[in-house]
Structure formats: structure tokens, C-alpha cells
């Protein structure tokens, strides 16, 4: 029994170390189809086309078209910029640069930076600093000049805002190529939505046919963590989805080691971070090439169309794709293309975590408060495991009843471990007690605890969700450490109800464990501490009742 206790202790210690590593890292800063043609107008002034750049994808090669080389242009730490344009809806505030029409900034007004700063929206994208993250798009081809993210667009206004009663906001940028082709790049934002349509309207005023391809990509800087622990609680990096290979992570560190170049029909490419995701959605039937590249500290993940759009002289058409930039909220992701809901990454325990979140979400819809929903979920989990828990607690109660006899055997046989173990096993057999009965049911419940940990940590629905009184954010630590202290006290009381180890070293270890756990839980999300505390209190009530019943029957 002592060896089993020691094994259980180390198993729990490893679980807590895994969770602590995750929390330590968390605390460290960190489809278009061509449209019908419209008659072209007069040709305006023609600007000079920019030189090609290494971070612009090349057009797909046709049967008789060789690859077009691009010069080796190394990126600087600061992105070049032109005129900045801002646009705002009820869900998004974006910053667009006329140089390339890049999406250089994106804020989420419905998701404040923190609970104590409700007026400061979370910044998902930014164009500078250690966490540079931008979205780029453009058109490429084999002959002529194309509106890549290196051209300088023109725009009529620098301020756009969704007016009352208006459902759609359009931000058009124009560029006239030296060849005479006119391009209009339009961002389309809609009320209540985190989806952005990116459209390129092409007016072929040339005498030659036009042929081009759409591409969309993300650029993101990556600074390796300098923290003590390297395990990440919530994945930050790239991801792709295809109907054949399904969901795949593309870690930023791997982009230089294993460049991605894959032909896909449908699917999407995305950059993930805790609670939020940005994803290019080419279209369900779109044939694309997914690719990665690394330019200095900037990591690039994108797609380019493999099916060209062709326009006759004098014709016009539209090439488009969608960009999602917002929260990893389950109800929203379910409305997006297949696989987007997998960006809520519960890790290797998804099969347990996903049903747990479904149940927790159902309870929240019924109760209306995430804290009380966590308490209700804890009670339901406790009821589900009641037969196992009852068997475990009965075994521990019986073991506690045998403590005086075990102590007597230890005194009789002294250091003769073999005879002591034989005598103890004979006593267990006579009393019909399984020495493993108190441990194995607890070990079985450990995966449920870890799965719930990922649910509470990964679900944006829990972000800044209040419970009662001083707990204003269940995804953050208790600001006054009341819950961790209550949890530590409940764990200490629970140990007092269990049989104590005969070995003095093990006894001392088990005395220290409540302190050890309390220190760890000081920095855990309040929602997780709430779950553990309620679970402990229910366990104490159950153990006390079983001890009382067994004590009464033994008299």
C-alpha cells in the first residue's frame, strides 16, 4: 500500500508539473468567383509598378510558363508604410495601409484587454513590435504588373464607420497598373460579423487578355520563449485544414525547417493564439496551394489560387476570398467552413474535453453564470464517478480501520520487509480489502481533471466571465487568493479523513502536499480552482459519511 501511495503521489506531482509549466508559459508575454463584366471607363494616370519582392508568392506555373525569379530582398524590422485608413463596425476596428492594402491593425471592441479596462479593445493584429501580426493579399500573374501587397493604392477617405441602420461597410482602394488594367481592392465588413470579404475587381482596359491568381497570407514575428518552462498551455502558431489531411498544426519553429507547399481543394490557413484566430478562407471548391516562408523573424503562412481567372480585353471580373479574424467562440466557428471549430484546441484529451464543454455550455445557458455552471458541472462529474469514488473511499476507510493492526505488524517484524508484506497481504485477504482500491479510482479521474483544465483555459467564453463578489474573471487568478487558500484547507481536511502512511517520510510528504498544491493554485485560473475546491468539499462530505457508516458497523 505504501508503494502504491508513493506511485500516486508522483503521478499527481507530474500532472501538476505539466499544468504549472503550461500556466507559467501562459503568464509570460507573449470564395470568389469571377463576376460579369462592366464597361470600363477612362484610363487614369499610370503609376510606376514596384519591383517584385521575396515575400510575394510567385504565380502558379502553366504548361508553357517558366517560373519567374524574384530578387532576394531581406525584410527590415519595421514594415514600410504609406497612408493609414481606419474602419469600424460594432465588432471590428481595422487599420488598413494603402501600401499593399495590408490589414495592419485589428481590434475587437467586444473583447476588452482585461476586465478592469472595459474600454480598451483587444488588439489581435499589429504592424510593429515583437508581436507583429498582419494579413496581406494581392493578385499575381506571369505577364504585366499586378496588385501585390507592395503596390501603393489610392483611397478617397481615411475614416470609415458603420452607420446606424447600415448592415455593410465597404472600403475601396484603387490602383492603376502601367499596363492599363485598373484594380479595385475592397474590404467588406458587416454588422455583427468577424468575417471580412476581400475583393479584387479587375477592369481589363488592355488590348491583351488578362490572367491572374488571388493570394492571401499572414506575416507574424516569432520570438522564442526565454522562460524557465517551454511547454505552452495554449498553442500559438499556424494551422491548416484540408478535406483529406484534416486539421494540422504548423508551428512557427517548423516553418524554416520544413517549408510547406501543398495543393489543396477547399480548406483554410490560419494563425492561432490564445482565445483568438485569424484565417484565410479560399472557398469550399477553390483549388489552392498552401505555403509557408520565413523572412528573418517574420513567419509567413498563406494560400494562392491554382485556378486562374481570365478576362478578355475590355472585360471585368472579381476575385475574392474571405478572412475571419475574431474569437474562437464555438457558436461562431460552427458557422464557418468545415474544421474551423478545431482551432479550439483541447490537445490530446479532446475526446473528453469537447463533451465537457458542451455540458458546461448547456449548464451556462440554463443557469446564466459560468461560475455556477462550473459548480453544477463538478457535481455532475462527482455523481458520474460516484460508484468509483464510493469504492475508493470505502477502501480507504477500511484501511484506516486496520492502521493499528498494521502498526503492530510493523513492530513485530521490524526491518524484515518480506515477512511484513506477507503478513499484510494475508490480513488484506482475510479482511477482504483490496489495497489498490483506494488509488486506482482516483487515477482514473485524473484525465477528466486535465480535460476540464483545457476547457477552462482554452474557451474564450470563459474569458473575463465573472462569478460572484471579487471573482470578476474566471480565466484569471483569484486577485485575493481566497479560493486557493480554501482549496488548500479543504485538501488538508480531506487528508485527515484518510489513513495516514506508516512511513514517517511519506507522512511528512503528505503533510506538505496541501501547502505545495496551494502555492501552485495561487496562479491558476479561478475557474479551475473553483472546480478543484468544490470537488474537494464534495469528497470530504462523501468520505466523512462513509467513515461514519463503516465506523458504526464495526462496533
Please report the first level of CATH classification, the CATH class of the largest domain: Mainly Beta
**What value does the Rg take, in angstroms?**
30 Å
Task: Give me the side-by-side strand order of the main sheet.
Answer: 7-8-9-19-15-14-11-12
The stretches of 5 or more residues where confidence is low (pLDDT under 50) are 1-8, 24-52, 63-76, 225-232
Main sheet specs: 8 strands, antiparallel
Q: What is the name of the CATH architecture of the largest domain?
A: Distorted Sandwich
Q: What overall geometry do the principal axes of the alpha carbons give?
A: elongated
Provide a count of the helices.
12
Structural class: alpha+beta
Distance between the termini: 25 Å
What is the CATH topology of the largest domain?
A: Beta-galactosidase, Chain A, domain 5
- Helical content class: 25-40%
Structure summary, number of beta strands: 19
Beta percentage is 25-35%
Q: Count the domains.
A: 2
Mean pLDDT: 81
Structure described in brief:
With about 550 residues, this protein is of the alpha+beta class. The chain is built from twelve helices and 19 strands.
Write the SSE topology.
Elements (H helix, E strand, L loop, with lengths): L1 H26 L56 E5 L4 E5 L4 E13 L2 E9 L7 E8 L18 E3 L6 E9 L5 E9 L4 E9 L6 E12 L15 E6 L3 E5 L1 H6 L3 E5 L2 E6 L2 E6 L5 E9 L2 E8 L3 E3 L4 E12 L2 H4 L16 H18 L2 H15 L1 H16 L1 H11 L3 H15 L8 H19 L23 H16 L6 H18 L4 H28 L2
Parallel strand pairs: 1-6
Antiparallel strand pairs: 1-2, 2-3, 3-4, 5-10, 7-8, 8-9, 9-19, 10-17, 10-18, 11-12, 11-14, 13-16, 14-15, 15-19, 16-17
